[in-house]
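task queued by scheduler; priority normal; single chain, no ligands, no partner chains; default sampling; output format set to structure tokens
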Amino acid sequence: MNMTVNEKIKESISDFQPDLIGITCLFTMSHQSFKEVAEYLSTIFCGPIIAGGVHVTNDAERVLDDVPQLDAIILREAEVALKHFLLNVNEEDKPENLNQIIFKEENKYYEISNSFSSPTVEDFDIHPEMKLMEVNELSRYGCVGAYRYLVENSKITTLLSNKGCRGKCTFCCVSTFNGKGVRKRNVKSVVDEIEKLHKYQDNLARKIPSIDDTDELWDKLLPKVEELVKETIREAEVDIDAYVEINSASLRV
């Protein structure tokens, strides 16, 4: 059965019965779609709706003006800030731990931003719950960049091995969103995630592009990925691609 996006959203909310919904918007050109999703959510969901992502962080006040359905925005990287926000909602954390939040009330903006709660390497190494995400279904609804053309009708998922960038380009928002410098994941954690992607997604994740901003980890990572694929995935054909800065590394086994 083919479902529209709105039908899929409605079904997911009905099945999961969330207390809060978070939506994200990475690029400015996705703003209209992001706005339409928020508008639709407000017609079928009575709870709070919050947002995050690069676009809403860089233009938070105008986003709140244009998308009044949003109750709040979590700024910058939100792994730590969102956790403290939810704990405070449940009265399980101290209010002074609230951070990176902006909301609008009676035409005034209120921002709680004492400091940037940057996720540590340990936070970064935590794997998503693959069994709940249906990653191999995401290729049906869209793609990251133009990677789909590389392998027609393939199942594609993405991999992030580091955050941040060593460059400080004035036209780029990476340093303002992720903070200064580069945080690298543990190599074993990345390799374990690749194995889980393959294991939990019905062995259908054939293309795994890296979406890193730098290539700092891949010189150490690729040999271990090659060893992993040969030992655990064996006969499956999986491409691991890293397209970063002006350098690239590609492995096909």
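post-processing summary
- The chain has two domains: 5-112, 121-252.
- Residues 218-233 form the longest helix (16 residues).
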